[in-house]
Amino acid sequence: MIFNKEMKNNKIFLVGGIIFASEIIWYLYKKVHNLWIKSRSTCKDLKTNIHESKQDISEVMFFTKESSFCRTHLTNKEICLKDTCSVQYLRKLENYINRAKESLDICMYMLTCQLLSNAIVNAHKRGVLVRIIMDRSMACNEAAQTALFYRNGITIRLEYYVGLMHHKFAIVDNDILITGSTNWTMSAFFGNFDHVIVTNQHSLVKPFIDEFDRLWKTFPNSQENIECPAEFSVK
């Protein structure tokens, strides 16, 4: 009787142990399973956020002779209600320059706009690598911002060959391309029929990166070779 009672107690203890172990295993399984589901959800959200953070840029700006009516808004800071206001376009270009964090490459036939020139200098001052390519004859124009760039230590390279360096484009952080028919001059922004296209489509940006690098290697360092009048040289 005593032996049978002990056997019965052992069976009860064994069954209880099995049930207890099963509960622990089930608890651990649910814990691991929930962590796995959560990790998959987190990874999915992370991928979604990365995809959404890469905002597509596709913008077109047209400048016309009617743009001259908006020029006063630049100085008196009036808010223009026209969607095609040249001041709004100019501010957008300034904002794109202000977005530069690592590099700013500018290849511009003529650059006289003070607003954009100041933005370029400010980019250089905050540590952005700024490189500028210009046409030699236009760089020596008395309205050009060549001296301003030189005084602030920005490297400029000029075309020294037959023909014009007639490009008009800029690349922000090797990611955003600004290009079109428009020189960065007040007459272009407020009087000419011109256009600007802004995009971060890689298939369009990459060829311009390659072209800029090719020209940068081709043209000499203008700080050493510039032949502008004394008032436009480095001071």
Automatic annotation (TrEMBL):
The keyword Signal does not apply. GO terms for biological process: lipid catabolic process; piRNA processing. Pfam families: PLDc_2. InterPro entries: PLD-like_dom, PLD_domain, PLipase_D/transphosphatidylase. The chain crosses the membrane at residues 12-29. Coiled coil: none annotated. The keyword Chaperone does not apply. One of its GO terms (cellular component) is mitochondrion. Residues 161-188 form the PLD phosphodiesterase domain. Signal peptide: none annotated. One of its GO terms (molecular function) is RNA endonuclease activity producing 5'-phosphomonoesters, hydrolytic mechanism. SUPFAM superfamilies: Phospholipase D/nuclease. Keywords: Hydrolase, Lipid degradation, Lipid metabolism, Membrane, Transmembrane, Transmembrane helix. Belongs to the phospholipase D family. MitoPLD/Zucchini subfamily. This is Mitochondrial cardiolipin hydrolase. It comes from Apis mellifera. The lineage of its organism: Eukaryota, Metazoa, Ecdysozoa, Arthropoda, Hexapoda.
